[in-house]
Amino acid sequence: MRKKIKHKAEADTYMDLIRRFPLKTIKDDADHEQAVEVVGDLMGRKLDDGASEYLDTLILLVNKYEDEQHTPMGMDFKTPQQALRAIMEANAMTQADMGRIVGSESAVSMFLNGNRGLSKTQIKALVERFRIDASLFL
């Protein structure tokens, strides 16, 4: 009986998320903005299986939209610094916010000013958080 209760709760969570933002092809910037907001709300939280599956699918839809170059995230950047600035802008993040992800605000500042590169660990943290290609920072 206990499994059914857990399964029902996961189904309820999943359906609540579907009502908030249905899993469908993202066709415009307004849909993209709303989807990114939902992803941001769910990232870093403990999720049940239903919410986790929803998040995985929504991230795939967001990435597909971005890969089709509908947003700055899909563009080819001339420098890794431009890529990081675009990520920060797209997610309304400050250097301090980014520093909490990579472990050092000063490292972000030095990277953006061209004084140093990002470490493998810092790049990995960005890849995992934003589901982007590491080659943006190499």
Class per helix and strand makeup? mainly alpha
Number of helices: 7
How many individual domains? 2
Q: Estimate the mean pLDDT confidence.
A: 83
- Give the biggest beta sheet: none
Q: What is the string of SSEs from the N terminus onward?
A: HHHHHHH
Give the tally of β-strands: 0
The portion of residues forming beta strands comes to under 5%
Estimate the global geometry from the Cα principal axes.
elongated
**Radius of gyration computed on alpha carbons:** 17 Å
Distance between the termini: 52 Å
> Helical proportion?
55-70%
In the predicted model, the low-confidence regions spanning at least 5 consecutive residues are 1-5, 70-74
Blueprint of the fold:
Layout: H1 2-20, H2 29-42, H3 49-67, H4 80-90, H5 95-102, H6 105-112, H7 120-130
What does this structure look like?
The protein is elongated and about 50 Å long. The chain has seven helices and no strands. It starts with a helix and ends in an 8-residue tail after the last helix. The longest helix has 19 residues, at 2-20. The model is unreliable at 1-5 and 70-74 (pLDDT under 50). With 138 residues, it is mainly alpha-helical.
Descriptive key words:
single chain; 138 residues; mainly alpha; 434 Repressor (Amino-terminal Domain); 7 helices; disordered N terminus
Give a brief description.
By secondary structure, the chain is mainly alpha-helical. The chain has seven helices and no strands.
